[in-house]
Specification:
The two termini are 35 Å apart. By secondary structure, the protein is an all-alpha fold. It has a single domain, classed as Tetratricopeptide repeat domain (Serine Threonine Protein Phosphatase 5, Tetratricopeptide repeat, Alpha Horseshoe), CATH 1.25.40. The longest helix is centred in the first third of the chain and has 42 residues. It is built from 7 helices and no strands.
């Protein structure tokens, strides 16, 4: 009789450990993004009307509120600034964000274009691969879906 509660406790413990690992990975991602934003700000200079970090958070706010056209305009401006500083690590996230916004607008071909640009900069950039997977699944493009899932599977294996 004591055996069942112990099993449930072990399962619950494993679930909590998995959640903690995912949270730690997300915190590391946020930390790296913040470092990239600070590097980009430093390399671009502080004499801007808007700092890079402010523009990035403005984009997130527009996207959260569904003001996609403003988010696209601001992202395009930020991509130009990031390209001038040659910060490829931050560009992968910007292109991915632009791809996601076009996905939300229903423009899948443009979304794929920007997500693939992100993927060209960093072939193992997880968010871009996840969005591409979702689009290929929606389009029932089994060949590209299989390829993207294989990349995600290899990325997962590499992380564990």
């Amino acid at each position: 009789m004591l055996f069942k509660p112990i099993i449930y406790l072990c399962i619950l413990s494993l679930i909590l450990i998995s959640i903690n690992i995912l949270l730690i990975k997300q915190l590391i991602k946020i930390y790296k993004r913040d470092i990239n934003i600070k590097k980009l700000n430093k390399s671009y200079g502080n004499n801007n009307l808007f700092k890079i970090e402010e523009l990035y958070f403005l984009i997130k706010l527009y996207a959260d509120k569904g003001i996609y056209e403003k988010a696209i305009d601001t992202l395009s401006e930020l991509i130009i600034k990031a390209s001038k500083s040659n910060n490829k690590l931050f560009l992968e996230e910007l292109y991915c964000s632009l791809g996601y916004i076009y996905y939300k607008l229903g423009d899948l071909s443009t979304s794929i274009l920007f997500l693939e640009k992100s993927n060209l900069i960093n072939p193992s950039f997880y968010p871009a691969l996840q969005y591409l997977r979702r689009i290929y699944l929606d389009q029932n493009d089994l060949i590209k879906l299989k390829d993207t899932e294989e990349k995600l599977k290899n990325l997962y294996k590499a992380l564990n």
